[in-house]
Design a protein that fits this description.
Blueprint: E1 2-7, E2 10-14, E3 20-24, E4 34-37, H1 49-94, H2 96-99, H3 103-130, H4 134-146, H5 152-174, H6 182-195, H7 199-222
Antiparallel strand pairs: 1-2, 2-3, 3-4
Helix pairs in contact: 1-3, 3-4, 3-5, 4-5, 5-6, 6-7
């Protein structure tokens, strides 16, 4: 352990075994000692602003990937709990001898699990939207609508997310340059809109786009 003077009336000691720094008014006065946590830092120098931006972008991407993995694990855990509880309730309903002894307890457990899942759902949908994982987002919307437990505040948040998803899918159908996948990606967007109950709306968007393309083609031929 090394001691060094950091001020006229203050002394510091630190140990190589930890990252704490002990401050005291004079050597040996343990009763006046206070400890601080020391966070070690590393500095990296980049050769140019472009390299610096590349490093920062990669760090942000890594943080997003870690967050996404954590959300997926939490989502699968909550979904597994919901399924296991619902299976117990279903077995209890299928067995007349035990159906009358379990419903209140299991139903309450189902409600608690579903409520916890619903409260996590807006953040999960935000993550799906950020990663443009719209297939997973539509699946989560379906599960929300099939959920028997309702919470007005959460439902309002989820409705906002559903509208955001519809808007993204609509842009994929409406704008020629919005989709980086050609006709197949556009068809996928129409299919997802149909799964959300917007099949007529999706077809209307598609027909409008086709009409605009045909008018542009006729105009080019006429010129």
């Amino acid at each position: 352990m090394a001691m060094r003077t950091i001020d006229r009336d203050l002394y510091a000691t630190n140990s190589s075994q930890d990252d704490t720094l002990d401050i005291m008014s004079s050597p040996g006065k343990e009763k006046d000692k206070s400890s601080m946590v020391v966070f070690r830092c590393r500095y990296y120098r980049c050769d140019s602003a472009r390299v610096k931006k590349m490093w920062l972008d990669e760090l942000e991407r890594a943080k997003r990937d870690i967050l996404h993995e954590g959300i997926l694990v939490r989502q699968s855990t909550i979904r597994g709990k919901r399924i296991s509880v619902q299976e117990r309730v279903k077995r209890a309903e299928d067995t007349p001898s035990t159906a009358n002894s379990l419903p209140e307890t299991d139903e309450g457990e189902v409600n608690q699990e579903e409520l916890a899942w619903l409260q996590e759902l807006p953040a999960e949908l935000d993550d799906c939207i950020a990663h443009r994982d719209l297939d997973q987002a539509v699946e989560l919307i379906h599960e929300w609508k099939q959920c028997s437990t309702k919470d007005p505040n959460t439902d309002a948040q989820l409705k906002i997310r559903e509208n955001q998803i519809v808007q993204l899918l609509s842009d994929d159908v409406r704008r020629p340059g919005a989709v980086h996948g050609g006709p197949r990606a556009m068809k996928k967007a129409r299919t997802l809109l149909s799964q959300l109950g917007r099949g007529t709306y999706a077809m209307d968007l598609y027909l409008r786009r086709r009409s605009a393309l045909q008018r542009a083609a006729v105009k080019d031929i006429a010129v």
